[in-house]
Request: fold
Amino acid sequence: MNIFLLISIALLFTYFLGKFLEKAHIPWIFASLLFGVGLAVYNPFEIITSSGAFNFLAQLGMYFLLFIVGFEINIKKLKHQGKFIIKVSTFTLLLSIVLGIFVVKYFFDVSWLVSLLVSVSFATVGEAILVPILDKLKMINTKIGQSIIGVGTIDDVVEILALLLTTLLIGSRVDNGFIIAGSLIILSLLTFGFTKLGNQGHKFHFSNIQTLFFIIIAVFFFFIGVGEIADAAPLAALLAGVSLQTFISDKRLELIDDEIKSVTYGIFAPIFFLWIGLSIDVQALQSNFLVILAIVVVSALAKIIASVLARGKNMNVRESVLLGIGLSVRFSTGIVIVKIFLDSGFIDERLYSTIIASSVVFTLLVPFVFSKLLNNWKKHISIE
Reply:
């Protein structure tokens, strides 16, 4: 067995199992995580999965996922978000983070700063998981649908800040502060430069999509290379997406978006989620069932209570409960943050495995519960 055969098996497993998962409104790529969890129990490919080549491909998957997050942040749209969405975002983020801090601190006895950053994973919204369901149920253009997407967009900005703090915390362990500061300054200048040149981006003409894709990948790797100097490659990947999204014209952006997603979800993202699953300590999950249950309950209640409190005259109680349940779905950048913490030694496998397990529970339950309640409450839900 070699790495190419393992990747082939992983991709085929993800494809075929993913077909069944999609019928239950669960994202197909989730199958790759399940394959990784299976290998965490029994791994006949341990030599391969612990190799430098496999880790490199998995990290590329992480960088591409972060790049897509940045690439899909619409800065102009963020400036025009409604007061209601901003209010809901503020309530859900604050309540989720505050409760998350105390849960992490109480059960795992880590520092307050690490508790804060880890609790961001409780607050993050994997809105991409619910979008296909909203589309199928014709709910995307309703108040609930637009609120979920809007809160998820604002949530992306919070994830950037959390990733920045994580980068600074990890970077503090590196001796050469001048090199770190210099590389972060370069990243900041590059991002600022691309965003300021956004209005001039249409002047740069590319003969075809292949050329544009080539340039984007070159810039993407340049950002990562600069970020690597300061142990800030994940942040650099995200900033590369933000920078190029503002620089490329909207027409070209639509054409290139599918190309980037095809490379990411077709090759690298499944390897990354396989890597995530492999990192889980199955024995820790068995001994921490009550902790996982506590995290799930606290996180869900925080989202639902915050949505009800923030609803005002915009939604009735049932609509706000549905909104809170929808916002509970995770499986986003928060997973990347806790993975970085694990690799840097800030958290142990017990805490990491518990957080991933709670994310798995939400990913499995939220689409089902959301669809069920939506069907039961149709008479009370506004479709405007």
